[in-house]
Specification:
The protein is 43% helix and 13% strand. It contains 15 helices and 13 strands. It is found in: Cytoplasm. Catalyzes the attachment of tyrosine to tRNA(Tyr) in a two-step reaction: tyrosine is first activated by ATP to form Tyr-AMP and then transferred to the acceptor end of tRNA(Tyr).
Length: 413
């Protein structure tokens, strides 16, 4: 490799470290990693193999999940091979990281259905078309074929003490909550994925450091050059407090309509704007508008466009601006009204519970106060009955639920 070729490789790698919280193993700075990866490129004379594993434990992906997927796309654009591993085998156990109790084991049918939706949701992000840029692998390809001898070999590479050092296990052990033996296999199976695909780099959240380190150890055990780990921040949710999570209802789903996505991001708390721009867009941070409101609008449009295209996102923006100019008076057919799925609500249900579940109110007690104060409308009609209840979601499907002038959702079945 000539000096000029070396410089070009380093330049192509350096910009890939935007938004990276930690490089594993620890390196003084990203330039050192770039040099190491450039050396690996020169030695192997092939594109780097960049691994990202996703366990299809649920049906939906949100913007927090998209961060490593976007980084995977950045490596694709730099000419490297993205290896997207669908953890159809590991999902049957579920990653115990950060869990205070054992996860429910999924059936193969559940996992297969979730995996299908995952691929559909990441399609707008990744390059599925350019030859050699993407490998989609299912880890059942190799994990389902491991015999007892190989499993014993994997188990022999770690001690119980090392496993108990893992944050989730340590807490459960301290609190005397059960830890099942099959859970100890999870980091070993995820680590063996790196061996199976011969990963040069693995991407993950900061909560995945232990699992990525296991992958390095196993690669070394099996005679491979250990991978680098690039760890990215855990995205804070739209509430500005806790990590983005569907269970906390502070998420923006990749499959949500453009209007819903735009509306949620248009209200991003000021303290999260820079992080969202850095992790969810490719815009230059020093060229963003100074006004927080203009930043919110730009963020909402930029992210919605990634997943829905420019036309649909512009329509969502125009409808939202029209809604704002009307003083929050909701047109019941307005495309800017975000949607809330009633599938997460158990019926029969009282309206104040739905107000809390949809995040229109921070709590059911606040929802009661809003109803008592006349601040709640359903399809334009003011609600005064605190105990108003509905037997089935069909009674509410398509209706707009509103609190005050600026908070509203369209209820969908």
């Amino acid at each position: 490799m000539t000096d000029s070729e070396s410089v070009n490789i380093l330049q192509s790698l350096s910009w890939l470290f935007r938004g990276i919280s930690e490089i594993f193993p620890n390196q003084p700075d990203s330039n050192d990693v770039s040099e190491n990866l450039a050396q690996r490129l020169a030695q192997t004379n092939r594109p780097l193999r960049i691994k990202l594993g996703i366990d299809p434990t649920g049906a939906d992906i949100h913007l927090g999940h998209s961060i490593p997927v976007r980084k995977l796309r950045a490596f694709q654009d730099a000419g490297h091979t993205a290896v997207l591993i669908i953890g159809d085998f590991t999902a049957r156990i579920g990653d115990p990281t950060g869990k205070s109790e054992v996860r429910r084991q999924l059936t193969p049918e559940d996992v297969a259905q979730n995996a299908k939706t995952y691929l559909e949701q990441v399609r707008p992000i990744l390059d599925f078309d350019t030859p050699g840029r993407l490998e989609v692998r299912y880890n059942s390809e190799w994990l389902s074929k491991l015999d007892l001898g190989k499993i014993l070999e994997l188990l022999s590479t770690m001690t119980v003490g090392q496993m108990l050092a893992k944050e989730g296990f340590a807490l459960r052990y301290e609190q005397e909550n059960p830890i099942y033996l099959h859970e100890f296999l999870y980091p070993l199976m995820q680590g063996y994925d790196s061996v199976a695909v011969e990963a040069d780099v693995e991407l993950g959240g900061t909560d995945q450091k232990f699992n990525l380190a296991v992958g390095r150890d196993l690669q070394r055990h099996f005679g491979q050059t250990p991978q680098f780990g690039l760890l990215m921040p855990i995205l804070i949710g739209t509430d500005g407090v806790q990590k983005m999570s569907k269970s906390l209802n502070n998420y923006v789903g990749l499959s949500e309509p453009a209007a819903t996505m735009y509306s949620k991001l248009r209200k991003t708390p000021d303290n999260l704007l820079e992080q969202y721009f850095e992790l969810l867009t490719d815009l230059q941070l020093d060229q963003l508008p100074a006004d927080p409101v203009q930043r919110q609008k730009l963020l909402a449009l930029e992210v919605a466009t990634q997943y829905h295209g420019q036309e649909a996102s512009k329509e969502a923006q125009a409808a939202a601006e029209s809604l704002a100019k009307s003083g929050g008076k909701v047109n019941l057919t307005d495309a800017a009204v975000p949607e809330f799925s009633l599938k997460s609500v158990q019926f029969p249900s009282k309206l104040f519970y739905i107000l809390g579940a949809s995040s229109l109110c921070p709590s059911t007690s606040e929802a009661r106060r809003q109803i008592q104060g006349g601040g709640v409308r359903l399809d334009g009609d003011r609600i005064s009955d605190v105990n108003l209840a509905f037997d089935a979601p069909d009674e509410l499907n398509g209706k707009v639920l509103q609190v005050g002038k600026n908070k509203f959702v369209r209820l969908i079945n």
